[in-house]
């Protein structure tokens, strides 16, 4: 079920296990001025969600923000065959069956200043054995001062199951909006990553929506900057 956070901004969550951990996952929906809808990190489209989306506008873009959040993309495209798939570099090789319309940042997309994006680059895929860390498309919705990230930071607190709390403590990402130590060891081009996070932190955002964890509604920029101090310093 969609939940409205702000004007032209919604989210929907669903259960998801990763390596046996109930991390859950979240889709972000943005409506543009022409009533086009963008689905960032699509989840399974239930009849209820489909009805809600259809009442809001026309689904025009299906966005895979990194090389892992594509699990429901093919099924979502079957529901919305007219929608264009937007993906980061590399997904066309990993998932050749997908009909990718645009690859960021190879193909520029003009959202008429309603939505901005930045490729958070400088990372290399790691397999430990199933954990994948890679470049990620980060979005900024200026009208609601909202940053939309995927796996570049988490925010799990005491409201989550104990097993999640334990796992987040182990990777140094519990009760705070920050990346885990896995991101630190995944950096292969520090200058590229540093340049990207500087551009991201230059945006005027208050809220951060991430794919896993509790949404941060206030002072999110300060928290994210503190979480990435090791990279920007």
Automatic annotation (TrEMBL):
Coiled coil: none annotated. Pfam families: DUF4336 (PF14234). InterPro entries: DUF4336, RibonucZ/Hydroxyglut_hydro. Gene3D superfamilies: Ribonuclease Z/Hydroxyacylglutathione hydrolase-like. PANTHER family: METALLO-BETA-LACTAMASE DOMAIN-CONTAINING PROTEIN (PTHR33835:SF1), YALI0C07656P (PTHR33835). This is DUF4336 domain-containing protein. It comes from Waterburya agarophytonicola KI4.
């Amino acid at each position: 079920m969609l939940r409205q956070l702000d004007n032209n901004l919604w989210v929907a969550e669903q259960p998801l296990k990763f390596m046996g951990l109930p991390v859950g996952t979240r889709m972000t929906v943005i409506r543009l001025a022409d009533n086009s809808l963008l689905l960032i990190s699509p989840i399974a489209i239930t009849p209820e969600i489909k009805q809600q989306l259809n009442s809001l506008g026309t689904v025009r873009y299906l966005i895979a923000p990194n090389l892992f959040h594509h699990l429901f993309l093919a099924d979502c495209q079957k529901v919305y065959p007219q929608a264009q798939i937007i993906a980061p570099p590399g997904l066309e090789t990993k998932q050749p069956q997908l009909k990718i319309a645009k690859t960021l940042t190879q193909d520029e997309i003009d959202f008429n200043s309603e939505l901005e994006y930045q490729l958070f680059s400088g990372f290399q895929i790691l397999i430990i054995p199933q954990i994948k860390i890679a470049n990620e498309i980060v979005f900024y919705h200026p009208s609601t001062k909202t940053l939309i990230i995927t796996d570049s930071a988490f925010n799990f607190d005491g409201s989550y199951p104990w097993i999640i709390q334990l796992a987040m403590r182990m990777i140094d990402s519990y009760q705070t909006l920050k990346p885990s130590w896995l991101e630190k060891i995944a950096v292969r081009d520090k200058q590229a990553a540093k340049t990207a996070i500087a551009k991201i932190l230059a945006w005027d955002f208050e809220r951060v929506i991430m794919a896993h964890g509790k949404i941060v509604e206030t002072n999110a920029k300060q928290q994210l900057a503190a979480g990435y101090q090791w990279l920007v310093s």
